[in-house]
Amino acid sequence: AQLSYDQDLDIALPFINKGIRPRVAILREQGVNGQLEMAAAFDKAGFTSVDVHMSDILSGRVSLRDFIGLVACGGFSYGDVLGAGGGWAKSVLFNSRARDEFSAFFNRPETFSLGVCNGCQMLSQLKDLIPHAELWPRFVRNTSESFEARTALVRIEKSPSLFFKDMEGSVMPIAVAHGEGRVLHSNVEALNNSGLVAARFADATGLATQTYPLNPNGSPFAITSVTSTDGRATILMPHPERVFRGVQNSWQPKEWQQDGAWMRMFRNARVFVG
């Protein structure tokens, strides 16, 4: 691990001390399983995490206008029988109420959105609704043709993502658990050179790698996270919510205490909201 910041520094503390906890929708669908860790991470960063099932939005019981953040969590929505995140995305795109809710949310300039693993795959298929996300890729079957569940190293790149502010250059361990995480793009060179790549798989020296299993899915240019041009929407395949606490890591440097390296991204979101 090589960090460009102090992971024990709680940059969100000035906002937490004011007693204001903005509401974040922790979104799940049938088969999603990462919502509890995600809710815990955002709660710790100073938000109020609210469990929101897609059925709540489809029925009108819950409206996204009541939230400042939207987080699509990991798992296997609909068993991924329509492709990774496909059924979940189509439940938004082909339902007028849900489509209007999501479109209105994404277009509010004060909001942020995050997609992790299955949520990453789902949000990538909603890119037509997300401002400044035209260059986002799709995610398809790993080169290994296998489900990859392991620890990988990820290097944070310079990008407009609000989640990775002041984290550029950091190389950090993270949990990986996906079968369809390989980036597919009609012009992957344009994506690679766009400045919107927020993270890449890295080797032990911190360099982007195509070597398996250090790059577990075979994504070109080791791409594993992209963001929108305005930085308000970010998607990534690995699971930061599974390692936001130090003790969640299978290994950690001795100087790491309560917080793991990835806690900073959730605190960055709280600072963004202000």
Tell me the overall shape.
globular
Strand order of the largest sheet: 2-1-3-4-11-10-9-6-7
* Uncertain residue ranges: none
Could you describe the largest sheet, including whether it forms a barrel? 9 strands, mixed
Structural class of the secondary structure composition?
Answer: alpha/beta
Q: Please give the number of β-strands.
A: 11
- Indicate the proportion of strand residues: 15-25%
Q: What are the secondary-structure elements, in order, as H or E?
A: HEHEHEHHEHEEEEHEEEH
The number of distinct helices, counting runs of at least 4 residues, comes to: 8
Average the pLDDT over all residues and give the rounded result.
Answer: 95
Task: Report, as a whole number of angstroms, the end-to-end distance.
Answer: 29 Å
Share of residues in helices: 10-25%
Structure write-up:
Helices cover 23% and strands 22% of the residues. It is α/β, with parallel strands linked by helices and 274 residues long. Strands 2-1-3-4-11-10-9-6-7 form a nine-stranded mixed β-sheet. It has a two-stranded antiparallel ribbon with strand order 5-8. A hairpin with a 5-residue loop joins strand 10 (223-227) and strand 11. It is globular, with a radius of gyration of 17 Å. The two termini are 29 Å apart. The mean pLDDT is 95.
